[in-house]
Design a protein that fits this description.
Elements: H1 7-20, E1 44-50, E2 55-61, H2 63-69, H3 87-100, E3 104-111, E4 117-127, E5 136-145
Antiparallel strand pairs: 1-2, 1-5, 3-4, 4-5
């Protein structure tokens, strides 16, 4: 995680690492948004992994995520609801996180549904309800208009 140049993203990763203990990932009950600094939460997303067939249910889509992406995804599923825009990154990367069961750091260039180009630094963190498989994920993002 040394390549991450965003302190808020590192704060979320450190919290995730603390609450997971010796497990590969904490559960949703252990990874609580209310335990994070309030300034970070609007930049976060919580997803549940569904399937088969594979889909992603957006349990929480922070206010800044809505503002920047131009869409509200809380309560929606990626494939069933035919999400467009920034969700493409999760469709590509969450399956990798599911399989590898480790945090992922990415930089993505994309265009919002409002036509604004961004570069986003994201940390994706696995969550597990059963201690064996990745059943969800938490992401935190830093957006920079380009």
């Amino acid at each position: 995680m040394k390549e991450v140049d965003a302190p808020a993203l590192l704060d979320v990763h450190d919290h995730w690492d603390r609450v997971r203990g010796e497990k590969f990932a904490p559960s949703r009950r252990e990874f609580r948004l209310e335990d994070l600094p309030p300034r970070i939460v609007p930049f976060m997303v919580l997803v549940d992994i569904l399937g088969p067939p594979l889909d992603f249910h957006y349990r929480f889509f922070g206010g800044k995520m809505v503002e920047v992406s131009g869409v509200e995804l809380t309560g929606k599923t990626y494939y069933a609801d035919r999400i467009e825009g920034y969700g493409f990154a999760n469709a590509k990367l969450l399956p990798v996180m599911m399989t590898e069961r480790v945090p992922m750091f990415t930089r993505t260039r994309w265009i919002s549904v409002r036509g604004v180009p961004f570069q986003t630094i994201t940390v994706r963190l696995p969550l597990s309800e059963n201690g064996k498989s990745t059943t969800g994920g938490a992401t935190v993002n830093r957006f920079t208009p380009i």
